Amino acid sequence: MAKERALRRAAREAEAAKQRARRARIVARRQRRRALLTRLMPRRRRTGRLLVRRSRGQRAGIAVVTLVLLALVWFLVDDIALRLVLTLLGLLCLPALVVVALGRRTS
To answer: For residues 95 and 93, what is the distance between their CA atoms, to the nearest angstrom?
Structure first.
C-alpha cells in the first residue's frame, strides 16, 4: 500500500513539476514580449503638469473672461430661467470658443 501511495505521489509531483515548468515558460515568454514591445514603442514624453495645453496666463484669462460674462448675465438679465439657460449655454460653448480663439496646439 505504501509503495502504491509513493508511486501516485511521485506521479502527482512529476505532473505538478511539468505544470510549473510550463507556467514558467509562459511567464518568461510574456516578459520577453513585453520587454521587446517597450523597446520598440516610442516613449511618451510627459511634462508632469496638468492642463499643459494652455499656459497659466491663458488659463487665467479663460477663467476671468468666463466669470465676467457669467456675472454680466446674472446682473443684467432679470428672468431666472433665462439666467440659467444662458449660464448653461455659456458653459457648454466655452470649450469650443476657447479652441476657436486660442487654437489647438499640438506638442
So the answer is: 6
pLDDT digits (tens, 9 = 90+) for 88-98: 999 999 888 88
User: Which of 40, 55, 61, 63 lies closest to 107, judged by CA?
Assistant: 55
Q: How many Å is the maximal CA-CA distance in the chain? A: 98
pTM over 0.90: no
The rounded distance, in Å, linking the Cα atoms of 96 and 81 is 24
**How far, in Å, CA of 49 to CA of 67, rounded?**
24
pLDDT digits (tens, 9 = 90+) for 56-66: 888 888 899 99
Q: Where does 41-102 have alpha helices with state H?
A: 56-76, 80-102
C-beta neighbour count of 85 within 10 angstroms = 13
Structure-block grid coordinates of residue 61: 484669462
SS3 33: helix
Residue 98 has a CB neighbour count (10 Å cut-off) of 19
